[in-house]
Amino acid sequence: MIENLKGYFIPDDTLDEGRGNFVWEDGNYLYMITGVLTKEELIRMAETIK
Description:
The protein is an alpha+beta fold and 50 residues long. It has one domain (7-47).
């Protein structure tokens, strides 16, 4: 959960499900963070977006 919004982790590779993309929306905008990052890193980044 990012604030009160449900986010989704999408793995990059079925063999390495620890890295991928994180997506969520707030009713107006769709947000997506991608990169060579772990699920935990993506969630921490998403939590800092206001």
